[in-house]
Write a structure and sequence with these properties.
2 copies of one chain form a homodimer. With 135 residues, chain A is of the alpha+beta class. The first copy, chain A, is built from 5 helices and 5 strands. Chain A has a single domain, classed as PAS domain (Beta-Lactamase). The radius of gyration of chain A is 16 Å and the shape is globular.
Chain lengths: 135, 135
């Protein structure tokens, strides 16, 4: 039993670490939300940049707070509905900071007994938040 | 003890699930390698596409097998060395399938008692493997 406990711990830590590194490494803007209350579970720097805030300021808060009033009410419902459509309909929003038109491309998933939304965020005028320094 | 076992299981599954979804969702080409033997631990579709293969065919094999002979010998050493340089020196390689010039941008990390490399793969002529369908 001790062995399997340790293996479980190692496996958990491995995916935990892989997840964090992957999220930090990619240039795509990605946000994870709780499907129950729309709070930001996690997001990366490119996502924070597009939303006009910081990871610290946006984390743990409802995503709707970073968006214009008109979009706030049923944001998480719009996202979960969009996520279950066959064609993955994007959801258009406007950031509160910077008044920026953004496109959210959500997918719904279940993990650890809860439902989450993972969404890529793209600038609606086509430019993704690429931080590529290769030039 | 039972409760913490279950919580451990749930937490593990959650990061496991988040990791898989994130890897599938991003448009960046990403590969995870074992730092001990250079085998592909995981990779996403954009990475497989740039390497000219499939996830199934490339997974579990040394990454060097997907690259031209000249690059094979010390690939994992080149990657781990490049990963620990301050400026994250990119490593240039050429794919065996398609004779494509690729740039690997590696980072070294430790998880579950082993060392791994996460590398973004970019086409050396500048075009990333973006699968964006927003147009």
């Amino acid at each position: 039993a001790q062995m399997s406990l340790e293996q479980g711990y190692e496996a958990r830590r491995e995916f935990d670490t892989r997840y964090r590194l992957l999220l930090r490494t990619v240039s795509d803007a990605v946000v994870f939300l709780s499907a129950s209350d729309g709070r930001v579970v996690d997001l990366n720097e490119p996502a924070a940049a597009l939303l006009g805030g910081t990871r610290d300021a946006l984390g743990g808060k409802p995503l709707s707070r970073a968006l214009k009033d008109s979009e706030r009410g049923d944001l998480i419902e719009m996202l979960t509905s969009a996520a279950v459509t066959e064609d993955g309909t994007p959801v258009e929003v406007v950031s509160l900071a910077g008044d920026r038109r953004l496109t959210l491309r959500p997918q719904l998933f279940r993990a650890g007994g809860e439902r989450f939304v993972i969404a890529r965020i793209l600038s609606a005028d086509g430019a993704d938040a690429q931080d590529d320094s290769l030039g």
